Amino acid sequence: MGYDGVVQAVRQTQIAAQVSGAIVTLDVKPGDTVKAGQVLVRLDARAAERAAFASAAQVRAADAVHEVASRDYERNRQLFEKGYISKAGLDRAEAQFKSAQAQAAAQLASAQAARAESDFYVVRAPYTGLIAEVPVVLGDMAMPGRRLMTLYDPAALRVSVAVPQTLAGAVTLDRPPGVELPDVVQGRLDAVGAQLLPAVDPATHTQELRLDLPASLAGVRPGMFARVWLAPPGSDTRLYVPARAVMRRAELSAVYVIAKDGAPHLRQVRIGRREGDSIEILSGVALGEHVALDPQAAARTH
Questions:
Q1: What is the dihedral of CA 157, 161, 167, 171, to 10 degrees?
Q2: With contact defined as beta carbons under 8 Å apart, do 9 and 152 qualify?
Q3: How many CB atoms lie within 10 A of CB 172?
Q4: How far is CA 105 from CA 54, 95, 100, 108, in A?
Q5: What CA–CA distance (Å, rounded) separates 264 from 273?
Q6: Is the separation of the CB atoms in 157 and 10 below 8 Å?
Q7: Tens digit of pLDDT at every position of the chain (302 positions)
Q8: Which of 33, 49, 68, 270 has its CA 20 to 30 A from that of 27?
Q9: Hey, what domains does the chain have and what are their CATH numbers?
Q10: Cα-Cα-Cα-Cα dihedral sign, residues 102, 104, 110, 112
Q11: Are 133 and 149 in contact (CB under 8 A)?
Q12: For residue 118, how many C-alpha atoms fall within 13 Å in the half-sphere facing its CB?
């Protein structure tokens, strides 16, 4: 039995801006293949660069104050040991030293944050993938959270389909479900992995079945229509007929079934995968029935 599903990307990322800035370079477009670490977008980082430069200058100033306070504290400690100054004087020198030390550490942390923020103005690909959508153009203003593009991994695709809960338990990797991708891949594909989500939809009494597709299928994209074929529970026997016995007319597949009186009767069938010179029959013909090997000859006697 066939069930309609949709192709999904196992790994898909919506890349959003983390800072504000005008887009000054946009190096990719939809359909481009990018590598991990490749530059995708550059934002105007002049304000961030100035802030980072100012923070670096403040760090140098704080370091200078800290160095002076350290030397002053050391001198006061030596004077206190010789009895030339009071304990209160030493405490004031120590407090100034610790304050300068804390200020230097705070300025250093602020500078590191400024440098880290400047990295957000260059957006790079998190992994090798394909650009699916770019909703911005050169010169647009990026804001924190605004989506810049969508990236997905074309080597990791799956089909998601809702199946009746009565059939869900019949899915096993020993007999992987067949997957059809019309107009993209000829014939059927065997899923390389299956995952049945435990939740049951209370409205439709179905469960979501996810089937992993073979890697790097040419022309397959997320959102495409797919059809999944599941065998009913207990139907372990597969029925095959010679390929030359199947007659095809556009979307119709049929065979001539020979009745007990010897007369051929045209019957529509649903076909499955092809193995050598034989084709699997999913429905339309029962085990033990006879089919005509020459449909054209059977049509002339029909």
A1: 0
A2: yes
A3: 9
A4: 16, 15, 9, 5
A5: 25
A6: yes
A7: 678 899 999 999 999 988 888 888 898 999 999 999 999 998 886 665 666 666 677 778 878 888 888 888 888 888 888 888 888 888 888 888 888 888 888 877 776 666 666 678 888 999 999 999 999 999 898 888 999 999 999 989 999 999 888 776 666 656 667 788 887 877 778 888 888 888 998 888 898 989 899 887 888 889 999 988 776 555 556 788 888 889 888 778 888 898 888 888 888 888 877 777 888 887 788 878 888 898 888 887 76
A8: 49
A9: 2-7+155-229 (2.40.30.170), 11-43+121-152 (2.40.50.100), 46-119 (1.10.287), 239-301 (2.40.420.20)
A10: negative
A11: yes
A12: 17
Tokens of 5: 């599903």
